[in-house]
């Protein structure tokens, strides 16, 4: 397709398409609410007394090692079990996205999430908590697979980055709301934790209603042979009738995609490696920034630093607010300056913040003492600068870039691998962080900062820029032009792949 055709893709933002973006993005709010709610609940005395009395007993001993008093594998399993469930569910979600469409997959995500919220809120035994978390996980796996794809496919090319980042924006809003709720329910005894967990059903219900209102994406409809419906949907989301150029490009991409009968197999062919590697390594790096360690356990972390229970929850609210505000920076800049510049700037800022936190804790926090109030406040500020830079870079880019770099024939399969990689590394960090903090102490922050340095080098040498490129032309105009990745393509293999 000629470049001037791409430049003349016509669209306008109608109230309906804006509503589609917002309603679908509630899948991110579900995910964020769960991230935020877990750490606050696990710091509540009523919750610990009921389900983890040994942890509560250790917590009450003032002489207990600051870094180890929350080190309990079952307590960590409460948080991390969700992510193993999401890991497995993401592959079923990939098939659902391909066979049924993005919209029904989003509907299923909301249903599982509501079920998990009800079971966790009513839990009387550990097994009910864990089963509820597994249902949460299935909902997250389906939602995190379908929602970023939906937003990427429904967005006009010139706004694709900003629209996709709505998912991450709502993740941050979910974390912030969860922190506010935890702060309020920590004062409600003995069942405040039930309110925190049960209210997860609210974003699930909004997503459920939203899934009945939003349209299916044109790419999904055309991919499944519904070309007339696909063209109608394209006119609806673009707000104009002149969609022939874009429609032809989507049809051509889908026709090429239909030649590939085994998308998972094609992912592992030589020409599939660049997108597969980049999509998955970004997920690994997103978790190795240490962000989820901070977000999961922010209240626990701040208590370790010497804050009282209420003060630690309030500090988490502050970091949550910073997280939301900084995500708007990404929405504004991502389609102006591009993906790579945001990632590189943030890598420098995150590295400095993590090293500074580690240095303060290493030199001023003993195993049984507390930080001076001034230093503790400085750590909160450094956590905020870290969260801020993550929120406009590795947070949203971790979902945006993998959703836009695969060709149509491997898009759902490739994104399923990306989601599952995110979930397994989220699980590892969630399951290991408290134990790592116990054994590594302040050095854990140096561990994460070393990975941030590696991430910056990855962006410099291996990450291509995708700003302003139609997703149907990513392979031709991104991968085949990159100085490293173009070596994975040759005409003969491309022909063999297309005939597969």
Automatic annotation (TrEMBL):
Keyword Transmembrane helix included in the entry's annotation: yes
Residue ranges occupied by any Major facilitator superfamily (MFS) profile domain in the UniProt entry: 20-467
PROSITE patterns: MFS (PS50850), SUGAR_TRANSPORT_1 (PS00216), SUGAR_TRANSPORT_2 (PS00217)
GO molecular function, one term: monosaccharide transmembrane transporter activity
Subcellular location: Membrane
Keyword field: Membrane, Sugar transport, Symport, Transmembrane, Transmembrane helix, Transport
Membrane topology listed for this record: Multi-pass membrane protein
A cellular-component GO term for this protein: membrane
Origin superkingdom: Eukaryota
Keyword Membrane found: yes
Residues that span the membrane, as ranges: 13-33, 74-93, 105-124, 130-151, 163-181, 193-214, 275-300, 312-335, 374-394, 415-436, 442-463
Family: Belongs to the major facilitator superfamily. Phosphate:H(+) symporter (TC 2.A.1.9) family.
Name of the protein described by the UniProt record: Major facilitator superfamily (MFS) profile domain-containing protein
